[in-house]
Amino acid sequence: MSAGRWERVGGACAALGLVACVAGAVLDVRRAAAAYLVAYAAVTSVVLGALALVMIARLTAATWFVVLRRPAERVIGALPVLAVLVVPLLAVTRVLYPWTAPGVAEAKRAWLNVPFFVVRTAVYWACWVLFGEALRRASVRLDRAPDAGPLGTLRALSAGGVVVFALTVSFAAIDWLMSLTPAWHSTVYGVYFYAGGQVGALALLAVVAERERHGALRDAISPSHVAALAKLLLTFVLFWVYIGYSQLVVVWSADLPAEVAWYLPRLHGPARAVSALLLAGHFALPFLLLLPGAVRRSGRAVAALGVWLLAMHYLDTWWLVVPSVAPGAVPAWWLDAGALLLVGGATLAGAAWRGRALAALPTGDPRLEASLGYASGGAER
Predict the structure, then answer these.
(1) How far apart are the first and last CA of the chain?
(2) Other Cβ atoms within 10 Å of 94 Cβ, number
(3) 3-state SS assignment for residue 365
(4) Distance of CA 135 to the CA centre of its chain
(5) What's the pTM?
(6) Which tens digit of pLDDT belongs to each residue from 250-261?
(7) CB-based contact 208:300 (threshold 8 Å)
């Protein structure tokens, strides 16, 4: 499917989702706002995961990733779209967050107040968009003038970017999600949010790589590239479950009412089944499937697992948000679906439209030839 068709598909999905979101806001504004936050946080974390992946690959000189850089850069091209889509979230701040009410979380009022919340969100997005755009432009300049200038700029941007990224993503997770329960806190919450988003980004890249393997990158992506991507995906699946378990075991061992209360609506009622599904579908299933080398070298198998993990990542974000907003509520699937269509569709359309300016391969990268011949783990071209 061409970029133009992806733009039309994304636009149609966004229009349909907008209708559902408006109807939801009329019927139940609080639940509709929660659905929008779930979709927005899930999609944003995936795009931010792609940004982190591009920067980390630059810093580590990851040869295998060079042929997959352009698909990842197309994903981060959607950052300006998501920066605009944060406006509805800011508009419903007083609906979503209990700390906006008088007398709630007074001890944290210096941090949890609406003006400062809006300013911080603007700062987060300014950092992400600036770094994302600078990396994309420097990458394009490297194609036009393959010398040390753009390459040095890319390394410098990545070195500073990962530090800024770590801080801003952690604080954004605290502001947008953790503050839904202002009396509760966790020191690894931001890391958990990032880990889930990085799994989602790698899963999305696996899906895109399989599509490109039969298209523009037919002669570039080999089973070795797929295997490297699959191994990194397995690594972050394990990282995600490790951070989640670390948070749970500390909170549950202390058994303090203010801390355990966050888990209670997630381990009882309708969310209990979601918790069990996440443990099985976000950890156990991908862990077992990604162990065999034959599966890791199969682009079709890894892409199918990528689709599954994207669904699990959305469910994980739902698990973080909805029990805090409406404990014990029955999932309003059409509100969730509408919000996801709106945010996901607009993001897809924006990424496809802006991706037209990027070539299929970063021809100016000095490691491109080595990446095209990359071989690992006995995989055959």
Answers:
(1) 25
(2) 12
(3) coil
(4) 18
(5) 0.95
(6) 998 988 888 899
(7) no
